[in-house]
Design a protein that fits this description.
single chain, 243 residues, alpha/beta, 4-stranded parallel sheet
Length: 243
């Protein structure tokens, strides 16, 4: 069992006192998803612990069934860990068939975000502007309009590239872009551009800061994730329904 714990990168102290575990993509989600449940869904976690898996890539390849089995063995019966109520991962623009196959391998415990990655939900110009000014990207204040215009330019470049590759322009809507864009890379480039390279975008720091701003000021932007997490919790027999 100790070797299995090492395989998934978990210490017993991480889950001491927990009734069950919801496994998520990484450390950013481990910090942000509880915040979304508390502030947006207004649902107490109670005995549920949200933990990052060691390497989600292991769950997608040939090792997936083995890895899922390890998680089940660690969290079933007289195991060392509380039961796993589910896994919530980035979509990463997977095909519908790939998603279906992975869900089947997981015993239908695997869930995917509706967009490419968590950062796709953080592309809120007002939030980005607030964080940019908080970190003093430049001597003068950055405006929301500047952020909006820069993001719009990136979106138009993305659309033009898709058209060159043969995609139909009428299908390349704002919602489609927001779903498919590699948002973490976009935020990295945005931070570099507006800070002149002084501030490097770090997911575990700046995604958390953006989440904190959004749940306080525009919580509706995270409602889709809140609904997904709430659904995972409520459908699990290991979790009591919210009062």
């Amino acid at each position: 069992m100790r070797s299995l714990l090492d395989e998934v990168g978990v210490h017993l102290s991480d889950v001491f006192g927990s009734d069950n575990i919801l496994w998520v993509e990484g450390p950013t989600e481990e910090r942000c998803f509880p915040m979304i449940l508390r502030k947006v869904s207004q649902i107490p976690l109670r005995g549920t612990q949200i933990l990052a898996v060691k390497n989600t890539g292991d769950l997608e390849g040939k090792k997936s069934e083995i890895i899922f089995d390890i998680y089940d063995r660690l969290s079933g019966g007289k195991a060392l860990l509380p039961p796993a109520i589910g896994f919530v991962f980035d979509n990463e623009n997977k095909s519908d068939q790939n998603i279906t196959d992975l869900k089947k391998r997981s015993g239908d415990k695997l869930h995917f975000l509706g967009r490419c990655m968590y950062e796709n939900y953080l592309l809120v110009p007002e939030a980005i502007t607030a964080i940019a000014n908080q970190y003093n990207f430049r001597d003068g204040t950055i405006s929301v309009l500047e952020i909006e215009q820069w993001i719009s330019e990136q979106k138009q470049n993305w659309i033009a590239n898709k058209i060159r590759k043969g995609e139909k322009e009428e299908n390349l809507t704002d919602d489609y872009w927001l779903k498919k864009e590699h948002a973490a890379r976009l935020l990295e480039n945005l931070f570099k551009y507006f800070s002149g390279g002084k501030v490097i975008y770090r997911k575990t720091t700046h995604s958390v800061k953006l989440t904190e701003w959004i749940v306080k000021n525009k919580p509706e932007q995270l409602q889709d994730i809140a609904n997904l997490l709430q659904n995972v919790l409520e459908r699990s027999p290991e979790v009591n329904s919210p009062e």
